[in-house]
Every structure is written in structure tokens, then in C-alpha cells.
Specification:
The structure holds 2 protein chains of 2 kinds. Chain A contains 8 helices and 15 strands. Chain A is an alpha+beta fold. Chain A is globular, with a radius of gyration of 21 Å. The relative contact order of chain A is 0.12. Chain B has a single domain, classed as Rossmann fold (3-Layer(aba) Sandwich), CATH 3.40.50.2300. A 5-stranded parallel sheet of chain B has the order 2-1-3-4-5, with helices on both faces. Chain B is globular, with a radius of gyration of 13 Å. At the A-B interface, loops of A face α3 of B.
């Protein structure tokens, strides 16, 4: 059973795998023995191999087809070998100054398409909207069924971003605590709301970004794609709903279509300008309302959900790790200019 | 008698597994690399495969992928000292992932469980 351990100085939680037999060379790839997923002929996510995944939690599939059989377009399955063991939130334990809890959570995989090579940018916009609706459905279900405090939705694309398989997929990991990054954003938004703006800081930022226009990459009726003012990574983008909303769980079907369009715009521009880089996509949204209502009363007024897309172009090194200070070699204004001026070929 | 193919490059360890599993009533065929394993699978019928991951030549994950091209219905257990491969979705081709330990109880239980599942399918 893995453990969740708290760094009491920073408040950061870490998943510690306590399984047996860890050795230093666990982390050292032996020459010529790294798994070569891309060259392998078998894919557990491809149609026909449904028996190799755990039974599906839900799917979008052709009428008349059975679960765990071909006929699906999108499948959600539990992780077969999860980072956290499935179950409801465990109690916190303490010994002296140390705090930890059993590594219990929820770890699910969303297989986004039957086509092993069809990336998010190539999906019909309605199909991507279905994936975004599934994010909403799973967030609600996990919050309501398991009562975990935070549901993290993310996607790793490319080996450098941590993906082990190129078949398009997203992941969901729900944790019994709200992660520090999310708390920092919430506290920051709350402070700005109460002490300065009397409105959501994200809404305020959006207004000013629209006026300046320098970091605006793309906009439709419902969403804006921006390169954040203090971007940590080159060509980092943020997709933000124009209308204030704290909870992704409340996104409307209509808005998933507009979000799909904005997300495709963001990813397609990165793909063209940066030769299809590896990237991480993360959703930041308000924690489970059962927790938020008590821990952050009024969060619906000052927090604002958004997507972050971080292409993997640089390595996080000593300075960043030591200080939490990022060195970004590409000013976000320059990044936005490149992304905005992307020319798409007609083929 | 159920026939198990054991793919394990550490000879001392393979001997231990072979003895223990034979004591449990299984017929055990031992090979030390992925190529030999594939050769055996092409020629003989096995009820279950146990494979290490890190081995000279093709690793266990490549072996599993190749087995899937031959026969998808043989239950496979990954038996490795390394838990980090759990992050690799290619391991999903296997039916169980066991971390090597001085006790073989978990491995033995998984074998029983998978053979029972296969029989009752």
C-alpha cells in the first residue's frame, strides 16, 4: 500500500510508494532494456484488446454494443496498476510531528479514441467535446461516490511528458487531500478578492489581457487562450472560460464544444510552431464542493477553473528545484505572437 | 497438470521458483531470455507465463507484446523487482504485476487466481 506523506514545513503532500524491493538502479534504465512502447505491435488501449483493461466504468459507444467489447468511441477504465489504491478517503495518521495517510484514491484512464494515432488536434470537435463532458461526469461521480477532496484531470502526451503509450489517453487521479498547487491558487485568488479587487482575479486578469491583447492567442465566444503573464515554461498556454465559473463540474454541454474548439486551437498552434512537442495538459478547478464550502466559503465567487497546457521544451534544473523560481527563455508576449500567427496548411 | 513458462534471467532465482512451483503441483519450464520464451510459446502449449522485465536482449514488456501477437489468451504475470514499470501502460497486457519478494506467497496466490479465472471463463 503506498502512503501519502505531508511535508509539514511546506504543506506539500507526496505519494510514497512503499512496496518492496526498491533499489537505486530502479531509476537507471539498463542499456538496451528500456521498454520500446512505440515500436511494439500490441496496444492494450486499441479496440479488440478490451479484455486487457479492467472492466470499463463508462464509455461512449455505438447503440447495441456491449461494455468491454469493440463498438466504443471513448472508454473510461480504472488504472490496472494504480498509483493509489482504490477506495474512500483514509484517516490522517500522526506520529510525533509527522503526518501521513494510506495511499488511497482513485486512478482512472480515459481512452480518448479507437485510433492509436489520432491526436486531440485531429479529432472532430464534437468528439473532443465528448471527452470534455466525460471529465465533468467523472469529476462529479468521484466527488459524490468517493468523497475525495480533489480530482485531478491531466494528460501526458509524448515520452518527455511522461506518457508510456502513444495511444491518446487522459488520466484522472483523485486524492483525499487538496494538492498544494491548487491551495496556493485558491488562497491567492481569495486574498486578491477580499483585499483588493472585490471580484475574481482571473476575471480581472481576463479583462486586462483583452485590453492589452499582447498575450492573447485565440478567443471564441466562451473561452480565451492566453500565454500567462508570468509563464513558467516557454509557450505555456492557459485556456480560461470568459464567463466566471469556479467549478468545472458545472460546465454546460454547449460550453464543452467551445472549450474543445479552444483546446484544439491551442494544441494545433503548438504542434505547428514547435514541431509537435510533448506536452502536459492539466485542469485546475475548485475542489469537491463538500470540502470547498467549508474550507473556502465563497470560493464560487473568487476561483476560476482553467486548463493549462505546458509543452516540454526545457528541463527543470537545480535553480528551479532549489528555489521554485522558473527561468523562462521565451517571453510570453513573444510566444503569443508566434502562436497567434500560426499558418495552418490546407492539406 | 498445469504448465507454466517461467522467464527469468537470474539462474539462482529461477531454480528457486522452479522448485517452489513444482512443489505446488505445476509443471515448470524455465527459459532465461525473451527469445527462448517465444520459441517455446510457438512450439508448446502453456497455461500461464511468468516473466521478469529486465533481461538481456528483449525485455519482458517486449516479450509480452510479442506474445500478444501469438496468443492473447495465456494469463501472464509480470514478476519484477522494479515497481516503476507500473507506470508503463504496456504492462496492462499482463494480467498481474507482482513485485519480487523473499516470500512467494503473492506470486503463488496470483497463479491460482488466474488459472481459476481461466478455467471458469
Amino acid at each position: 500500500m503506498p502512503e501519502l506523506r505531508k511535508d509539514i514545513l511546506t504543506g506539500r503532500w507526496v505519494i510514497i510508494s512503499t512496496e518492496r524491493s526498491k533499489r537505486p538502479d530502479d531509476f537507471r534504465p539498463a542499456p538496451g532494456t528500456e521498454p520500446k512502447a512505440e515500436s511494439l505491435t500490441f496496444c492494450p488501449f486499441c479496440p479488440g484488446n478490451e479484455a486487457k483493461t479492467p472492466p470499463e466504468i463508462m464509455s461512449v459507444r455505438k447503440p447495441g454494443t456491449k461494455p468491454d467489447q469493440p463498438g466504443w468511441q471513448i472508454r473510461v477504465v480504472p488504472n490496472k496498476f494504480p498509483a493509489l489504491q482504490p477506495g474512500p478517503p483514509p484517516p490522517k495518521k500522526t506520529k510525533g510531528i509527522f503526518q501521513w495517510m494510506e495511499g488511497i484514491g482513485v486512478h482512472e484512464v480515459i481512452i480518448e479514441t479507437t485510433d492509436h494515432h489520432q491526436e486531440m488536434t485531429e479529432l472532430p470537435v464534437e468528439h473532443l467535446a465528448e471527452i470534455l463532458k466525460i471529465y465533468r461526469v467523472r469529476i462529479r461521480a468521484i466527488e459524490e461516490e468517493y468523497h475525495h477532496q480533489y480530482v485531478q484531470v491531466f494528460k501526458n502526451k509524448g515520452k518527455e511528458a511522461g506518457a508510456s503509450l502513444s495511444h491518446p489517453h487522459s488520466q484522472i487521479i483523485a486524492t483525499p487531500i487538496v494538492p498544494k498547487r491548487i491551495k496556493e491558487e485558491i488562497y491567492g485568488a481569495e486574498r486578491l478578492y477580499r483585499n483588493h479587487f472585490r471580484e475574481c482575479a482571473f476575471c480581472r486578469m481576463l479583462k486586462e489581457e483583452m485590453e492589452i491583447g499582447q498575450r492573447l492567442v485565440y478567443k471564441n465566444k466562451r473561452f480565451a487562450v492566453l500565454t500567462p503573464f508570468a509563464s513558467r515554461f516557454p509557450f505555456e498556454t492557459m485556456i480560461v472560460p470568459l464567463e466566471h465559473s469556479a467549478f468545472y463540474r458545472n460546465i454546460s454541454d454547449q460550453d464543452t464544444l467551445a472549450l474543445a474548439e479552444a483546446l484544439q486551437q491551442s494544441l494545433a498552434r503548438l504542434k505547428v510552431q514547435l514541431s509537435d512537442p510533448a506536452f502536459n495538459l492539466v485542469l485546475h478547478h475548485s475542489p469537491n464542493p463538500q470540502v470547498s464550502d467549508k474550507a473556502w466559503p465563497g470560493i464560487e465567487n473568487y476561483y476560476h477553473w482553467h486548463l493549462e497546457v505546458m509543452p516540454i521544451l526545457t528541463k527543470v534544473a537545480g535553480f528551479e528545484l532549489g528555489t521554485g523560481f522558473y527561468i523562462n527563455p521565451v517571453p510570453p508576449e513573444v510566444a503569443a505572437e508566434y502562436l497567434k500567427n500560426t499558418t495552418f496548411s490546407k492539406s | 497438470m498445469k504448465k507454466i513458462l517461467l522467464v527469468e534471467d537470474e539462474k539462482a532465482l529461477s531454480l528457486l521458483y522452479e522448485e517452489e512451483l513444482e512443489r505446488e503441483g505445476y509443471e515448470v519450464v524455465v527459459v532465461y531470455d525473451a527469445e527462448s520464451a517465444l520459441e517455446k510459446i510457438r512450439k508448446e502449449k502453456f497455461d500461464l507465463i511468468i516473466t521478469d522485465i529486465r533481461m538481456p536482449g528483449r525485455d519482458g514488456i517486449e516479450l509480452i507484446a510479442s506474445v500478444m501477437g501469438l496468443r492473447k489468451d495465456i494469463p501472464i504475470i509480470i514478476n519484477t523487482a522494479y515497481q516503476s514499470y507500473k507506470d508503463d501502460f504496456m504492462t496492462w497486457a499482463a494480467d498481474a504485476y507482482v513485485i519480487k519478494s523473499s516470500s512467494l506467497d503473492e506470486l503463488k496466490n496470483k497463479i491460482k487466481e488466474l488459472l481459476f479465472e481461466k478455467e471458469t471463463e
